[in-house]
Amino acid sequence: MWKMGVLKVEIVLLLNLLLVSGDVTNNDVSEHSLELTQSLNLARQELIQETCRRFPPRYGLDQLPPSQLEHILIDEEHKLLYCYVPKVACTNWKRILMILAGKWNDTDVLSITASIAHTPGMFRNLSTVSRPERDYMLENYHKMVIARNPFERLLSAYRNKLEGDTPSAKYFQDRVGRRIIKAYRENPSNESLEFGHDVTFKEFALFLTNRSEEMADVVNNEHWQPITNLCHPCLIKYTLVG
User: Fold this and answer.
1) Are 123 and 25 found together in one domain?
2) Which residues form the signal peptide (predicted)?
């Protein structure tokens, strides 16, 4: 679990970045820290742009079905679009945005449960707006995405969704784990086939890399979908990259 001090740092960082292009200065953040933040953010933007030049997308933004933009949340008050990526602290960022947008009365971030943070409809998302409104927001709003080492993210998803005995893990073991075991394990036990509770990381990796058609409904789950499929960084120029 994140410590409150870490969360405060994240909030300061977000506010700092939001003020980078404005006229307001934050007296609590040193000028040197602001310069470092700007420099690092620009370097990340340039890395994305260089990678997209090397591997250009095969489609344009207008060719995307609206469902492909569901992960991009809208905070109209702060003119911010945030693309949330599961297993990259998205629960905590949703909590932060709820407080910043006045959707929660308490200032204690951890007073917001995960279930509340993920409540459908808490924020509008980019799939719900008209094309002209979408284009206006993409042109005029800050656009934020938080990334993570992709292998760390996959390991986190495996541990959180296919190991353990939490309700969330049980859900994924029943709906995904059982199918992985049936498809990729030789001579599985009846217990494994019934509960799907002991998927190995090797089996999980085979499941992700083979991408068989019969597994398409679960292999495309948001918790292990590549960030490029969720946030489309080659089509949307993110101004805040964490």
Assistant:
1) yes
2) 1-22
